Amino acid sequence: MCKRSFKYNKMKNFFLILISALFLFSCKENTEKQPEPKKSENGSIFVLDSKWQNQDGKEIQLKELKGKNLVVVMIFTSCTTACPLLVADMQKVESKIDPKKLKETTMLLVSIDPENDTPEVLKAYAKQRNMDGEPWLFLRSDKESVRELANVLAVKYKKISPIVFSHSNIISVFNKDGVMVNQVEGTVNAEEVAKTINGLN
């Protein structure tokens, strides 16, 4: 009777150890499978080799922005609903960035409607909102390049009429190496975004 009880207890302990080990392994797997922050291949937005035009009609590549922190949003100038709110959020963020950090920062607005948002249109839009000149930069490109950048930023958009798009409301922050360090969607806490910028090297 004692021998049977001993064998039973030994087997019971073995199964308890086995179950505990499987549980720990399962927890480790779940931890390792947590999604990583959204970022471009190689960790930097500057690996994208697409060509863009700014509001002055000058052709540039994103890698030319390296060396400055970036606050990025995607809009279209004929938008009368979400985009004006996004632009206002960007202006609030800009106003709360430390003046020294602001010199090291580019506030970037990218058009999702390159067909209608020509450099001339972007220039007029910027002037109308007192966003012409540093740290503000407006960019447009071909549809493929815009879609590629939108994928990196996790911005979804869809054309629902010749001049209207539905799109995500996301502001993304990149450090001087083009690596995403923060991203906010919907209602933006300008102080929080500015704090991220102020804390970067």
From TrEMBL:
* GO terms assigned for molecular function: metal ion binding
Residues of the Thioredoxin domain: 37-201
Give the signal peptide as a residue range, or say none if absent.
none
Please name the Pfam families in this protein's record.
SCO1-SenC
PROSITE patterns listed in its UniProt record = PROKAR_LIPOPROTEIN, THIOREDOXIN_2
Q: Which residues bind Cu cation?
A: 79, 83, 167
Q: Which UniProt keywords apply?
A: Copper, Disulfide bond, Metal-binding
Superkingdom of this protein's organism = Bacteria
**Disulphide connectivity of cysteines:** 79-83
Q: Which family does it belong to?
A: Belongs to the SCO1/2 family.
Task: Provide the protein name.
Answer: SCO family protein
